[in-house]
Structure formats: structure tokens, C-alpha cells
Design goal:
This protein is of the alpha+beta class and 324 residues long. It is 35% helix and 24% strand. It binds (3R)-3-hydroxy-3-methyl-5-(phosphonooxy)pentanoic acid.
């Protein structure tokens, strides 16, 4: 057989308890557990074709050929799957995102989840979800969580077997909404791979990691009981703790801009006024505002008029990835 191909679609996710820092960078073993919501309405579609006529791997993102570090990262991930499966052929990888680049959605999560699923299928490698999540994790830590729909936890640990993701609750458990406030669409200066590495230069990283199991268990319980107030408090604390580490790393990472702060303040005021909403921010200036179906319109109305807000994207809780 000259070629074997498969195609998969995966959704990005937004973490409520954030993963920041590895105990092993090569294996991407996260230093702390993380919990996220898989997002619907946005996805990455990836086709992988192993082809004996190719002399090297190829990678196309949104129909544009990519070389350099982007191709290298995809190729390294294919090597991992080739090692596990015995597949020896090079591959063409074609990926398309349904969301704009730089929208404040971590595209690496949906990208490496879809790539893992499609490449394993094309290489005839049969793995269960837990094993697939461990493979995806080695491409991008947050990608392990995109192997499932709904509410998902990625476990931390000191070896590959311990660091797998699992579903805490399915997507229909709690119909939360994520209002993504887009402030800046330019590419982030410092990506998460180097951020994970430099996190250990911050004096706040060790205490943040030491307290993470406590935050994760509060978050897990708030999801189980659908307690919005508790979830709001713990998720904002966790996001602020990660940004405190970022700000105090060497070199310091400041991802916020004045509009980011005004969104954070507006969210706090809305909550004081009785709205169910909280913010959480990844490695960029854009803000994810998590709310309920009931308060979604009020929250969107208050945020869209703020100076510096470029756009607003609305997502619900998404399902697991699919092979097409
Ligand atoms: O998967 P990575 O290496 O892009 O890291 C994700 C880091 C954050 O998005 C900031 C937090 C998280 O848990 O998703």
C-alpha cells in the first residue's frame, strides 16, 4: 500500500485550573493537575496521510505550507506515533482551524488532539482514550484534555503513565458559556513551551504547584455540584496565580494590556451586581468570560462596548473529538 490516511476533528479547551510548568519538559509531564472545559463551535480538522513516495514530512496549516519550528513539532509528534506503531513512511499533514489565529484560543490543544487521533488511525495504532491522551500530551500538554468532551482533568505525575486525562463530566452536565473577548490578534511573543520552562525561575511557582491539588479538588467538586460561585472564585484565583508566576519569572512575562484589565474589572463589577460570570486568561491578552445561558446576553452587552475590544466569540461546552 502506497498511502494510508485518516481525518479527525477536535475542539480546543479552556482551563479553569491551569497547567503551567513541567517536571519533565521532554515528556511534558505537568507539575500540577489541570481542569478544563472543552469548547464547542470551534475546532481543528486534520488529515494525516502516510505515503511511501514522500521523502520528508509535510505540514500545511490553513492551506499554507509550513516549515521551521512548526513543521519540526508536527514531525516530532509523528515520530512518536511511528515509534509506537512501527509505521515507517513520511506523512502529509493538512490542518484547518475554524477559529481565527490569535483569538485567545490555544490552538495547540485542538491541533495536537486532532493530529494524534488522525495519525494513530492512519498508522493503524489502536489505543484507548487514556493512552491517546498521553500521546497527545507529548505534543502539547493541554491537548491531552481535548481528547474528551465536557469537563476534563489532566493528572500530574512523575512518569508518562501517571499523566493522562479523563472526563469529569460530559458536555450536557452543565451548559456553561464561554464569552471570549478578543483584544489582540497578533501572535504571542513568548509561547507556552518556553513559558513552562521559565516558570521555575519564579519564587511563586513552587507554592502555586504545592497548592494545586487543593484548587483542583475544589474545582472538581464545584463542577460536580454545579456551584457557580465556588467555581468562579477558584478559577479566578487559579488564573491570577498563574499570571503572578508569569509576571515574576525571568524574563518576566506580561501578557495583559489595559483592555485585559478593564475586562477583568468589568467582570468583577458584574459579579458584584449578581451576574454569574468569572474570567480566566491563558498566555495572551484575550479574556475568557465564563457565564451561564441566563446571564450571557447581559455579560456580552457589558463587554462589547469597552474600549479596545476587537471582537467577541461565544462558545458552549463541546464534545469529544471525532474520526471522520
Ligand atoms: O498545552 P500548552 O503547552 O500550550 O500549555 C497550556 C498553557 C495554558 O493554556 C496557559 C494553561 C492550560 O492549562 O491550558
Amino acid at each position: 500500500m502506497t498511502a494510508s490516511s485518516a481525518q479527525a476533528r477536535a475542539h480546543p479547551n479552556i482551563a479553569l485550573v491551569k497547567y503551567w510548568g513541567n517536571v519533565n519538559d521532554a515528556l511534558r509531564l505537568p507539575a500540577n493537575p489541570s481542569i478544563s472545559i472543552t469548547l464547542d463551535g470551534v475546532s481543528t480538522l486534520t488529515r494525516v496521510c502516510f505515503d511511501s513516495t514522500l521523502s520528508a514530512d509535510q505540514f500545511f496549516l490553513n492551506e499554507q505550507s509550513r516549515s521551521g519550528p512548526a513543521l519540526e513539532r508536527v514531525s516530532n509528534h509523528l515520530d512518536l506515533i511511528r515509534d509506537l506503531s512501527g509505521e515507517t513512511r513520511n506523512a502529509t499533514v493538512r490542518s484547518e482551524n475554524t477559529f481565527p489565529a490569535g483569538a485567545g484560543i490555544a490552538s495547540s490543544a485542538s491541533a495536537f488532539a486532532a493530529l494524534t487521533l488522525a495519525a494513530c488511525k492512519a498508522a493503524d495504532l489502536m489505543l484507548d482514550e487514556r493512552a491517546l491522551s498521553r500521546v497527545a500530551r507529548q505534543g502539547s500538554g493541554s491537548a491531552a484534555r481535548s481528547l474528551y468532551g465536557g469537563f476534563v482533568e489532566l493528572h500530574a505525575g512523575h512518569n508518562d503513565e501517571a499523566c493522562y486525562a479523563e472526563q469529569l463530566a460530559p458536555e450536557h452536565h452543565w451548559p456553561l458559556r464561554d464569552i471570549i473577548v478578543i483584544i489582540d490578534t497578533t501572535h504571542k511573543v513568548t509561547g507556552s513551551t518556553s513559558g513552562h520552562h521559565s516558570s521555575w525561575t519564579s519564587p511563586f511557582q513552587a507554592p502555586r504547584v504545592a497548592d494545586a491539588s487543593r484548587r483542583a479538588s475544589i474545582c472538581r467538586e464545584a463542577i460536580r455540584t454545579r456551584d457557580f460561585k465556588v467555581l468562579a472564585e477558584i478559577a479566578e484565583l487559579d488564573s491570577n496565580m498563574m499570571h503572578a508566576v508569569m509576571l515574576t519569572s525571568t524574563p518576566p512575562l506580561l501578557y495583559w494590556n489595559p483592555t485585559t484589565l478593564s475586562v477583568m474589572q468589568t467582570v468583577s463589577v458584574l459579579r458584584q451586581e449578581g451576574c454569574e460570570v468569572f474570567y480566566t486568561i491563558d498566555a495572551g491578552p484575550n479574556v475568557h468570560c465564563i457565564t451561564t445561558q441566563q446571564d450571557e446576553t447581559t455579560v456580552q452587552g457589558a463587554l462589547k462596548t469597552l474600549t479596545g475590544v476587537k471582537d467577541i466569540l461565544r462558545c458552549g461546552v463541546g464534545g469529544s473529538p471525532t474520526l471522520l
